[in-house]
Amino acid sequence: MPPPPAPLWAFHLRRLTTWLSQDCGGGPRPWKLAWVINVQKGGTFFFLGLLMWLYHNTSPAAWLYLALHGTYGLVWLLKDLAFPDPSWQKRVTILGGLMAFLTVLGPYWIFGWLLISGTAKPVYPLPAGAWFCLCVSLCLFGSVLMIAADAQKFFTLRVQKGLITDGVHRYIRHPNYLGEMMIYGSFALLVWHWLPPLVLAWVWLLVFAPNMTLKEASLSRYPGWTDYRRRSWWLLPFVL
Prior knowledge:
By secondary structure, this protein is mainly alpha-helical. It is 68% helix and 2% strand. It has one domain (8-221).
């Protein structure tokens, strides 16, 4: 039987984000989408360090945020060097690259600015040490999960096409997205301000949700999908 069609809402959102980040404005395509992503990811460490210098903020929370968000960006560069995502190797228009930065990537920098500038004055629900432990744990676990999922997908599909139903994909069908959500969720918890959750909701609903939905529609054409879907979860074990 042919695979079920993807929901129209997911199709139209993917079409919108593709146009914004790749084709907006038309004209020449001088850069790859991966270059835009890597500039933001790799530049985060230096951007946060500059903020700490400008605002003379050397508090433990500022240093911790630099360590988590800044180092995650450097880890991303290592991941892209070792096993780059083929979907980000497409060349995009000048305006498309700028829109990708301004609408999705750039807003992540607001998190660090809120904390380091003093605009956010977090009063954590737990003692600071315990809250920092929670943020570090989420970020570390999410980073490992995301890296493991992307590596497994990259190297498995080089030798065998089809469903990946073992490893970190055994019980969760989208472990890479779950890892990313844990990482950025840890940053939002450390800032503890109302704006980061809005940014995350924007990205997760505009980009993550349609991507996962369309991926499921695509994977449903492979033999074994029905059984795999029945014994696994969409995102969170025992929840979704």
